Amino acid sequence: MTIDPDDTTHHAEVARPHDSRRDPQQLRDDLQRWLAARVQDPRVDNVHSPAANGMSSETLLFDATWDGDTHPLVARIAPADTAVPVFPTYDLDAQFRVMRAVAEHTDVPVPAVLWSEPDDGPLGAPFFVMSRVDGLVPPDVMPYNFGSWVTEADDAQRAAMQDAAVGILAQIHELPPGTAGLGVTTDATRAVRTHIDRQRAYYEWTTRTGPRSPLIERAFTWLGEHVPEDPSPAVVCWGDARIGNILFDDFRPVAVLDWELATVGAREMDLAWMTFLHRFFEDIAASANLPGLPGFLRRDDLASAYAARTGHTPRHLDFFTCYAAVQHAIIMLRIQTRAVHFGQAEQPDDPDSMILHRATLEAMLDGTYWQALT
Predict the structure, then answer these.
(1) The pLDDT of residue 374
(2) What is the pLDDT of residues 138-168, one digit of tens each?
(3) CB atoms within 10 A of CB 337
């Protein structure tokens, strides 16, 4: 599967809502004014964006002092429409509620969520504020398997990271959906079909301002014909379950981030997403003639470790891995559409070429890809 590493860097950069960033001094004043209604005599300093701002929303780092203590904080702000956001809606208050439920009902480490502000008056868009946790995150740009602290670790250290990631999924899947505000639990088949319908709606939203993809539409047909029948209860899914959304300290997770895609679904959705996003980077590494991390986050290893922790043997992983690839394809299509909008890329004649892992998805639909995952 040939993927140009330079294209990966390009897609990651154009996806970030750079043009939604505002003047730091104005933000400092706005945050301090807003915070004054919640704590006594606050002072806000050091307002800045991280080096790697997220694709889905704007992230601001700042320090706030009150009652004699300085608190390192993070604000997650919904992007403005002018930023041509990656997703159609940004319910940050829902993300806030999910994180609070995870903190209250599991041992999964999440930053303490402090306040949610649904009004766009104070900062121009809804936002929430959480504590800032120090740690290392496996980078996306360049991918962590190209050469990073993850590749420099030894096998035992990476095994500890992998085991911790599986443990995080196992705990999330035990969270009662009602406590996270994600609705009533249904059987897994029904939940998966509902989730696919939402992804199809996302695709239709994306193509309102960009081209349609014959490959994605073929994939939706395939998905509709192959949804596995599973009467077991649906569970809370993290949604963006990938190693790059975990902060580590000495190879131990200290914060699990990015909950905007949390949903009710099948357990295998999270496991397959974690597998596929690593495979996506592995295919890029192979195209760059780099060794990558072929022994890390292997599908069978994750499935075995998950079964040992939970007693649930993951099933239908071919289907769910393909579904992960389809979801990622829609995101890639949106990101490239965004790049065309901002003049960072030209519209290609073949819309499917906007999907970096086109060959991967085609091989999955043809049933020829799976040997690479064992």
Answers:
(1) 53
(2) 999 899 999 999 999 999 999 999 999 999 9
(3) 22
Q: What pLDDT, on a 0 to 100 scale, did the predictor assign at position 19? A: 42
Identify the segments of the chain with pLDDT beneath 70.
1-22, 52-56, 372-374
Q: Record the pTM.
A: 0.92
CATH architecture of structural domain 7-131: 2-Layer Sandwich (3.30)
Q: Output the pLDDT for position 82.
A: 73
> 144-373: what CATH class?
alpha beta
Active-site residue set: 240
* Residue-level pLDDT at 255: 98
Domain ranges (residues) in the chain = 7-131, 144-373
